[in-house]
Amino acid sequence: MKIYPYKRLGRPIALRVTSVALELADGTREPLDTSAYSTQQQAVALGVAGHDWVSAVIGVSATLPPGADAEDAPWSDLRVLAVLTDGETNIRTSTALTRDTDDSRDWSGSLEIYRDDHLGRASLAAYAVATVDGVAGRSIAETDRSWTVDTVSDEPVAGLQLEVQKASFTKSSREWLRAYADAPWIVDTSARVPTVFVNSDVDGIVGLLDSSASGVESKVRDLLVAQMATDVWTAVFHGAIGDLEVEPGGTPVFPTDWQGEVLREMLPDVVPGVHVEEALRQVHRRRTGDAGWAELQTRIHYAAIRRAEASKALGYAIRSLEQANRESEK
Amino acid sequence: MITQPDHVPERLALLPASAADPFITEQLLKAEQVHGGVDLAKVVVPLPEDDARWDVEPIRSLVEDAMFEFRDDRTRADAWLAPRLHATLRLTRREAADRRLWTHIALAVAPDYVAWRHLPPPTAQNGARRIAPERFQGPADRQCFSRLWWAAELFRNGADYEPVQVACGNQDLIHTVLRRDLIDHRPTAQALVRLVRNGKVTTGREINGLSVAITAAGATLVYDVLAPDEPRDLTPLRDWIAEAQTAPPVSRHVLPEGPDEDPVPEASVDALTDYFLELFETAPVRGTKIDS
């Protein structure tokens, strides 16, 4: 928990996206239906129109926690801002929201986002700002979890997204894949989004992955996917830890792109029981220090297995094998 | 020292990290030997044919002029090249955030410049000198060309590149500040430049102390309220990018002009400069002695 040297609201702001409309290249405006955003995932997907959009207008509504307007509140000049940031393109734009009615706790407004300003994902947060103890611009409450605005995806999902590409490793125009011709899949974490290349030269692998069959085949497919996912999570974790920026004092900084998302998600399983910031420091110390890196591998592997839901996939695969065996014995 | 590859492409392209990796050899990092260029050309992702922005020649000639002009003091090349690279290679931020473009420039177009600028100088201790691989392919604030482009993008004041020259003239400023998201707020970037220009903050230690203090204060203060900026408008940038199709080469002697955007509101820069100065005077700077 953070300690602030001034009075604040005790609870976070609730932020909701209420509408999304795209401005297309031909000048027309296309309102998106509610499938473009998800309150549960806190995510907006602007990619539904493909590459044709130029800008998007996102309508938002923020509800302040109780107490913001209390008679005896120690602040004045209350304002609410929606702030959009993108660590990849260094964009920061803020929009003032307006109070719905005089005595309402709801503030709303809309912000414009340009496709040319983003390559992948941006975050959207809200701040309540006021003058406290004579100091202007103090933040007295924020959203505790930002919304994700994905400028590429057509599905509003907050978590890490992987790209899966199928390619013949021996014939691909990506010449570097040829070195891995005997592997069924490899993970590339150096791309902008972690990518799994599936080797279509392996007989039947593409058919198996794409199959919509039920029964044993689907369980084997899920097991294979879980195995790939375990590889991916392990690789992205190592990739993210290996690329950490370190402040002059030696403190590692959370990356702003997907690597940061991966670390925040996995660190609680890698170093349980401490804040993610402290967990990151510990992991970084072990990797760069003399001891403890090898010992940590088991925990990293464990965190990857949990993310990949490998136990569940294995459990179902074994059960369906047992069933199949029983039936063949009949 | 290496020269340019035998085969330099005519057009810029995208070079994915995994494809670039085999070309970043130990000999290249030691500036002893560079690839021939032909094999590298096979693994790139081409950019659209009909866009003059992807011509290699204007960039190649810029870096050659920089190497000649600053042959005696290569760190000074940054302040000269940053605005000129930015005005030559007119990009949206979306395009500039694609690291594959910068990797291609560093490896295929001008590896000799990367070596010239970033091979550590010989000292008694470092017998085996080596360029950091991140100068060819790496984070935006470290890679040889993307750090200059982003410094120009984040420190320019609308069309005016003069603040970029000041910022890039101080290695500590771009080294420490570029990696932090605090300068994503234009008034903050301009206030920092003003402090450096006025000589209020100069050494690396001071700049670092100040940027730590600004970030710490920013955890409780919303700078957008203290120092509001103009709303973002992409029209001038789009026009400027469209003009790239017919633009003449940038002047080597006077500063070019950037996109015709509104400058940062002066009142906001004033307010933040005063505030940062106050922060700086009360912030402990590591390693300084307090005069009694």
TrEMBL record, chain A:
It comes from the Bacteria. This is Uncharacterized protein. It comes from Streptomyces thermocoprophilus.
Automatic annotation (TrEMBL), chain B:
InterPro entries: DUF6339. This is DUF6339 family protein.
